């Protein structure tokens, strides 16, 4: 691996003029793309890379930060940096973004792009079974795990379920849990999309990158709808699986 990285790095340096961190970023990207580094494999440590390629650790760190933002590698505190594996997500389990990522030992976060409340729109009223004039809470969040943007989510919740937009810190379902609100069932549909220019900018992806659009309506045990969420997941990061049974 070390020989391969050294050769590829020297090839990158000879091929074009660019800052050293970009040469290293391309070197590691090539190694991942051609399978020299495989999913789940640990990258050589920061100090080792710096010594091998005669670079400063700041340069190495900058290159790795770029790969994290691209979703190619994942950093685990105290354990190192690993080539990202696709996230396997059940299409039939009522789990949250936070649940899915925590189960993999990652650190899921919400970056609020919008957060507020207002009167329900006709479309929202249909999705949430609300009457005109009802109040709703709205969130638009960038969802990240260990620094990598994985999804954009627009969520609408009836104010009778969640009284105040400030109740959600990172996780909507954690806020439900705290309030004793129990989602028991959801209807969900999925289709392929390409990220438009604005979404791509927020996700730090090239425009037109593949995505999965998932719309979810979640119900409480008393039949009320608790959320209407439109999620845009990275298509290159997720595998959706479902168990099927004959009737
Ligand atoms: C998931 C759900 C989304 C839900 C969110 C809550 C899918 C396709 N969508 O992203 O409907 O609002 O989790 O996550 O699974 P949170 O509790 O981390 O905010």
From TrEMBL:
Tell me which SMART domains the record gives.
HTH_GNTR (SM00345), UTRA (SM00866)
- Can you tell which superkingdom this protein's organism belongs to? Bacteria
Q: Organism classification, top ranks?
A: Bacteria, Pseudomonadati, Pseudomonadota, Gammaproteobacteria, Lysobacterales
Keyword annotations of the record? DNA-binding, Transcription, Transcription regulation
Gene3D superfamilies for this protein: Chorismate lyase-like, Winged helix-like DNA-binding domain superfamily/Winged helix DNA-binding domain
- Name this polypeptide is given: GntR family transcriptional regulator
HTH gntR-type domain: from which residue to which, for each copy?
18-86
Coiled-coil boundaries: none
Cross-referenced PANTHER family, in alphabetical order? MANNOSYL-D-GLYCERATE TRANSPORT/METABOLISM SYSTEM REPRESSOR MNGR-RELATED, MANNOSYL-D-GLYCERATE TRANSPORT_METABOLISM SYSTEM REPRESSOR MNGR-RELATED
Matching InterPro entries, A to Z? Answer: Bact_HTH_transcr_reg, Chorismate_lyase_/UTRA_dom_sf, Tscrpt_reg_HTH_GntR, UTRA, WH-like_DNA-bd_sf, WH_DNA-bd_sf
Task: Write down the species.
Answer: Marilutibacter chinensis
């Amino acid at each position: 691996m070390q020989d391969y990285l050294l050769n590829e790095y020297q090839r990158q340096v000879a091929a074009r003029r660019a800052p050293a961190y970009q040469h290293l970023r391309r070197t590691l990207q090539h190694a991942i793309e051609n399978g020299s580094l495989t999913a789940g494999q640990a990258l050589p440590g920061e100090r080792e890379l710096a010594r091998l390629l005669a670079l400063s650790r700041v340069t190495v760190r900058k290159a790795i930060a770029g790969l994290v933002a691209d979703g190619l590698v994942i950093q685990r505190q105290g354990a190192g940096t690993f080539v990202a594996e696709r996230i396997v997500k059940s299409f039939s389990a009522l789990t949250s973004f936070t649940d899915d990522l925590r189960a993999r030992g990652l650190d899921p976060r919400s970056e609020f792009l919008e957060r507020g409340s207002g009167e329900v729109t006709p479309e929202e009223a249909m999705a949430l079974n609300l009457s005109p004039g009802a109040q709703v809470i709205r969130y638009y969040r960038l969802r990240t795990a260990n620094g990598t943007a994985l999804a954009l989510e627009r969520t609408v919740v009836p104010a009778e379920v969640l009284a105040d937009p400030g109740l959600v810190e990172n996780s909507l379902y954690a806020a439900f849990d705290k309030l004793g609100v129990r989602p028991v069932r959801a209807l969900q549909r999925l289709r392929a999309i390409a990220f438009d220019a604005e979404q791509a900018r927020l996700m730090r992806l090239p425009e037109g990158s593949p995505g999965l659009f998932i719309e979810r309506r979640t119900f409480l045990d008393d039949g009320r709808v608790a959320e209407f969420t439109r999620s845009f997941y990275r298509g290159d990061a997720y595998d959706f699986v479902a168990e099927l049974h004959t009737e």
